[in-house]
Write a structure and sequence with these properties.
There is one protein chain. It is globular, with a radius of gyration of 15 Å. The protein has a six-stranded antiparallel β-sheet, with no helix packed on it. It is mostly beta strands.
Length: about 100
């Protein structure tokens, strides 16, 4: 198993003024991943009625070791601590970063 300096990797995408997918993805160092899909992740068109529907679901998987290693290599190539907390309306959070 790959070791990582990240205790958890989280990516969250919120609502926009259209049909942007609303979800939260969490990836753990044991390569388990959870996608919490709220709205517009699987729909093909925009409808305000989408918000009246129940959330789309929670999906769990284990990421292949080679894919996880690629992700970690990309993250390791970033200077995470120099990144902004927010970029527009999107929030990127890297939990428990060790230096």
């Amino acid at each position: 198993m790959s070791t990582s300096k990240y205790s958890t990797i989280e990516y969250e995408a919120g609502a926009c003024f259209g049909s942007c997918p609303i979800f939260k993805m969490t990836i753990n160092p044991d390569r388990t991943a959870v996608l919490e899909a709220e709205h517009f992740n699987f729909s093909k068109g925009f409808s305000k009625g989408e918000f009246d529907k129940p959330r789309e679901g929670t999906f769990k998987t284990t990421i292949k070791e080679t894919d996880y290693k690629k992700l970690i290599a990309l993250l390791d190539g970033l200077d995470i601590k120099s990144l902004s907390e927010k970029y527009g309306s999107r929030i990127y959070r890297f939990t428990n970063i060790l230096s």
